[in-house]
Amino acid sequence: MPRPHHSTRAETRWAVRIIPLFIVAILGVATYSVVARLCIDYLYNEKHQSGVVTAFLVLYFLFFLLMAAAYLRTFFTTQLNPGLVPLPPREQTEREAAEKLRKRRHKRNRDVEESAYTPPDPNPDSPGLEAFYSKDVFVCEVDGRPKWCSECQQWKPDRSHHSSDLGRCVRKMDHFCPWVGGMVSETSFNFFTQFCFYTGLFCAVNLAVGAYSFRQHQQDGDPTDGWALAVIVLACVFGTFTFGMALTSIRFIFLNTTNVDMLKRSNVVVLAVRIPLSTPPSIKYPVIVYPLRGPPHRPGSDGQPPSSQYGTVSARDQQAERKFAILRTKPRENPWNLGLRENWKSIMGDNIIEWLLPIRHSPCCNHESMESDYKLGPLISRLRKRYGAPELETPTRSGHAIELQDRTGRRASD
Ligand SMILES: [Zn+2]
After folding, report:
1. In angstroms, what is the span from residue 191 Cα to ligand 1's centroid?
2. What are 120-132's pLDDT values in tens digits?
3. Could you tell me if residue 215 is inside a domain?
């Protein structure tokens, strides 16, 4: 059973505990006023409008169930599987020391950006590095090494960001939402969108019942009904909020972006894009060759292994080498934009059942592809052309397997 991941902030932990009770209370009031007071007592018993009441009740409970299912799925996903980047394997003592340091820093300074910066691990064999260069494209810094999280002291996978709420890096982090109990990220964004969408529709049904009853009272010359008025006001407030959230989320899905990406979209994205090992040096882009050797690599070098300086490189090691061009996008270019249809499918799933029901995690949660962490769009080919970086001539998986095996063999013999 996975352990729940709670926020490191006391006030957020309290909000996460109190808000579900608040939601239950609101739903209790809604059900009492809409079902008992307006539909049964007024429209059915007083007005004898059984057809209208049946239609209202079917819609009410349909969207209630869909909303509750999406809410529970989102809530438990944010608690049990918020998409945290696993910490690198460390010795027990080292891990405890790192954890202590992380907590101390977090206490001292809540703002990650301002806390003391720990430089990236200079070790060429740094744990976790291989997971990046065994793919064909990954997000990197200008020196060609992956991004580094100073707080977690580990390399950050593509599209992951450090959450100061959870004190950990989160994959495709979107935002921390106390309404659904925690971090909305790649594991829960589809469920969260369904929740907002169904809550919007649920509010629309409530509004319809409230407005219909209100009009009936007016037509009959009765005094204004307090319950109908309260339902209209509550449905408008919650409906506007959740429908707005649903529309924003749907827009983000079609654009394959997140709240965090939107904040940074004027920044360029630097990518390490694999090129053939035989590619001659170019003045248009720096390159980096993995596995790294000796001291940290400096950008702008020709990418040839510094064999004369740091010992001879064996023929087998050379075969296992992978060369990457360090390419920069323009501001607002999104390397993960696959087109509207594929963007939607990568988050909401392949078929309409998955789009409508909170049953499966997004396909983009699967990071097994050897091409990149997240499926890349046509921008990568355009970038290669823009910089004159050649395509890989043999994209065969068998060649790849030989390389990996080779490197593993080398490591085992180290
Ligand atoms: Zn982190």
Report:
1. 24
2. 888 888 888 999 9
3. yes
